[in-house]
Input
Amino acid sequence: MTPTPVLRSLETMVPETVLHQDEVRDVFAGQPGIGRLAQRIVAASFNGSGIDTRHTVIDELSLDRIADDPVFFDRDSRELLAPGTRVRNDVYTREAKRLFVEVARRSLDADPDLVAADVTHVITVSCTGFHAPGPEYEIVRALRMGDGVQRYHLGFMGCYASMPALRAARQFCLADPDAVVLVVSVELCTLHLRSSEDPDTIVASSLFADGAAAGIVTARDLPTPVAGLQLDGFHTAIAPDGEKDMAWTIGDSGFEMILSTAVPQIIGETIIGALRPLYAREQDLVSAFDEGRVGERVAHWAIHPGGRSILDRVQERLRLDDRQLRPAREILRTRGNMSSATVLFVLQRILEQEGARDGERVAAMAFGPGLTAESALMTVVAPIDDAP
Output
């Protein structure tokens, strides 16, 4: 019987430039053509986001730096500029390549038993830019992997895409017990921020940020015990309503995010039905779920922090305590919404900062265009010194 695949050696990184939420709020509220109603929406969205800081690859967005030939932000006039989609994607191609390779290298360097030559599959994830050869190619070449490594890229799926990437990695490992799958997500959401009076665009501008994450999935019996997450099962659900409330399209001035204020309500109305099939595979869990006690059986919750109101609704509907939502809220507060990479940041925090113990269960959830809800059940695998 093939052992259950484990996600290990999770590594994350963010660009150096820090955006302070109050400063960004004032910039957006002060743009030419922004009326009083839009200014109030900007203030409410930024102030209520639950975010203190986020990061960007665009150095000139920092109020501390002056660009000789600004493309995104003119510091002298404090005006947000409107470069075309090609200009934004050119920046993505340059910056994303660097981050994909670096975070992948960090994940492999962090693993005591695996090196680049062991990798059999590479799965990359991103929805904030395009180029070919793609990021999975760049990783294989830069880390000197063999030409026979199987490469896959999940593009333009949105915030939930790291979940199907992990599910695919699990399936590869179940099919081949010797497989070693490197999963890498890089999102440069700030490349597409722009001034607007549209409420949905303002909400998106108040949330999105840049980040990168990578981890290794394998079922190999390796000699060194390391902290990880056994990937027990996955489930996908699509809300009956919501297709127009969360969407990601390509415009002439960047990619355009639709994130309506109805999304938290839709998630709240559908989350019970969306999650029950996942827990139904285990009788004790589905019983607790049906009785509103699943938080007592599943210790840790890696909820994609699409926004503070989404986390509030999930916590309310599933009756989770503040400690269980702390990892998601802290990532949101310090990093913002980094689209598909974010749930990997939350999982890393659970492993490294939340006292996760061997054998404890973890529930992961991410939401994206569709409106699609991806969920997973995992089990903490900890070194013997960390076990109860």
In short: The two ends are 27 Å apart (CA to CA).
